[in-house]
Amino acid sequence: MKKVWMVIAILMTGIIAIGCSNKKEDKSKADSNLASSKASEHSEQEPATTKVNYTAIVKADRAVGESRLWVEELTPIDEGSEEQASMSGEVILLITDEEIISYEDPAAETIQAGQKIEVWLSKFPMATRSLPPQIAGKDVLAIRVLNAE
């Protein structure tokens, strides 16, 4: 009887060892599949530096340091590109860094309602589904306030 229990114990140990080694192989295969899928996703994405130039009309005055800018009729400058969608109506541009704003007139210090601006956004900007939509500050790359004509 002692020999039977010894054989059963050895067989169970072998089965457990084989089962554990298969899990490690499956996990390493899953990890390599995950890594290759992430690599292919990354290669399909556009570079982060791609930007699109838009024009807009400022809807409301903006004080220095205010984190948002209300604009109307955000329209791409290059109308020939299908990837550039215009946004009709009001849009709020969230501004995270005051350094992205430049003025055509060096004496200007604020943005006034009715002024025309050029806005550089990332190629596919993140926007909320609220009314009016808000474009995330990380996607607002630069703003240039143009002189009144």
From TrEMBL:
Q: What is this protein called?
A: DUF3221 domain-containing protein
Its lineage opens with: Bacteria, Bacillati, Bacillota, Bacilli, Lactobacillales
Q: Where is region (Disordered) located?
A: 27-49
